Amino acid sequence: MMSDKFNRYSVGGNSIRGVGYFLFIVGLIVLIGMVIANIFFQVAINILILTVVIILIVLGFLMAGIYILPEWIRVPTLLLGKYKKMRGPGMFWLFPFVYKIPFTLDIRIITTTFSAEQTLTKDNVPVNVDAVLFWQVNDAFKASIHVQDYQTAISWAAQTSLRDIIGKTELSQMLVGREEISHELERIIDERTEEWGVKSIAVELRDVIIPTALQDAMSRQAQAERERQARIILAGSEEQIANKFINAAKIYESDEVALNLRAMNILYESMKEKGAWIIVPSDMVNILGGRFKHLTDFDEKSK
């Protein structure tokens, strides 16, 4: 059975053909009536009326074969059941009663959504995957003769191809490598539908849904990984600070002036707060005072 989409476009010119069939049948009935009346009832045939009736029959016959198609529609024509040629777009004429148009073909780019539910990945994780396929009929003859319903066929081909890809792919690769999977899926679908006259243009994975329990586990794993990275960075910073302290200690050990200046700087920074009091042992004051006097004497000697 044809899908709704497969035959949703009626062939243009229905009203013209309807009027044509009406004129043809009415004219034919009138003509037969005139002949019967002449044979059995000896009624004379009026030449003018006969001419009008014949014109109506011919005009109706011509109108009954007119078809009009939009730019994106193609139709196969059958002569007494045998394929003749593909017609469209525009207006054309077919011999009534012996030619038939079984369905229409849309040659525009069409989107088809498909999915795979509860399909196991290579590492045995059930996932639900939604995808969309962009495709186009590039050979109307193959699409109309080689397959019964090309739209349904390509939908099933896309779904089975998606299941095959999922079964060959691990979950981690599926989550981070959607583009590669889309390209591979497009290639597989294109190989399967080539003999149907259909070209796969692009495939995009819309969503990959994993079980809730696995989502929680992956979230905890990601959080633990972030904490590990944070601790590594913190440890590296501590190591750098420790190295700086070691270098500073070496400088203070070899240069007492630098050590005393650092001690005085610490006192100054501590007393910057308003109302702050610092109690310093007298020995430390004498030491600092002596060091400061030593620095002063050294400075006067240098002058």
Task: Describe the protein in words.
The chain has 303 residues and is an alpha+beta fold. The chain is 56% helix and 20% strand. It has three domains: 8-105, no CATH class; 110-214, Tetrahydropterin Synthase, Chain A, CATH 3.30.479.30; 243-303, no CATH class. It contains nine helices and nine strands. The strands form three sheets. Strands 2, 3, 5 and 6 form a four-stranded antiparallel β-sheet that branches. The chain has a three-stranded antiparallel β-sheet with strand order 7-8-9. The chain is rod-shaped, with a radius of gyration of 46 Å.
List the main descriptive attributes of the protein structure presented here.
56% helix, Tetrahydropterin Synthase, Chain A, 3 domains, four-stranded antiparallel β-sheet, disordered N terminus, alpha+beta
Summed up, the helix count is 9
Spell out the CATH superfamily of the largest domain.
Band 7 domain
Write down how many β-strands occur, each being a DSSP E stretch of 2 or more residues: 9
Residue-averaged pLDDT = 82
Helix content: 55-70%
